[in-house]
Design goal:
about 30% strand, Fructose-1,6-Bisphosphatase, Chain A, domain 1, about 25% helix, 9 strands
């Protein structure tokens, strides 16, 4: 998976957050979640990936969109294209009630890795570090992050710098780390965070989206 895709994934969470923010304060958490899911899926299908949702909105029978096992990305329209295979974990709107009531700390979030890099985990809360099957037993919850990365790289017979992982999230309502979506005149401003493992940096990005010119985005890192 190419690091350049990180900006595409940033666009995915930004669009989900903007869609959800339009429902903020109306008291309808189901509608807020629905529009965030629709926006995330539509944007993801324009990204040049052969993606599989491994952590999503639930099982297929319980979630009509972004269910576990669902195929997303440009490969759904061009199945023979040679594009990266990616595993994806998504929560189009973390904090549906928070968004519906206008409370702080609602976000749109996504994580992605190369195929096999994310565990299809059950829906439960626990202390966990998720790795692929080839790295089973190589990590320790109590070990420093750097040590775990070295162990994973050793199992994969790669350098730490070659491991690829992208995490992106955009604030829907104001929180401690990220501001919520802000509407102004003919545009929208978003506050996001993006982390890529290869450069070991966390970047905070403010973006301006012009509604009449969706092809133009102004970003401040």
């Amino acid at each position: 998976m190419e690091e350049q895709l990180s900006l595409d994934f940033l666009r995915v969470v930004e669009n989900a957050a903007i869609a959800a923010a339009r429902t903020m304060g109306f008291g309808d958490r189901h509608k807020a979640d629905e529009v965030a899911v629709e926006a995330m899926r539509k944007t993801m299908d324009s990204v040049e990936i052969d993606g599989t949702v491994v952590i999503g909105e639930g099982e297929r029978d319980e979630a009509p969109m972004l269910y576990i096992g669902e195929k997303v990305g440009l490969a759904t329209h061009a199945p023979k294209a040679l594009i990266p295979q990616v595993d994806i974990a998504v929560d189009p709107l973390e904090g549906t009630n928070l968004c519906a009531t206008g409370a702080p700390n609602a976000i749109a979030v996504l994580a992605a890795s190369e195929r096999g890099g994310l565990l299809n985990a059950p829906d439960l809360y626990m202390e966990k570090i998720v790795v692929g099957p080839s790295c089973k037993g190589a990590i320790d919850l109590d070990a420093p992050v750097a040590d775990n990365l070295k162990s994973i790289a050793k199992r994969l017979e790669r350098d730490v710098e070659d491991l690829v992982m992208v995490f992106a999230c955009t604030g829907v309502t104001d929180g401690n780390l990220l501001k919520g979506v802000r509407f102004f005149g003919e545009g929208v401003r978003t506050s996001s965070m993006i982390l890529t493992l290869d450069d070991r940096q966390v970047r905070f990005i403010d973006s301006v989206h012009l509604e009449k010119r969706p092809d133009i985005k102004v970003r401040f890192a």
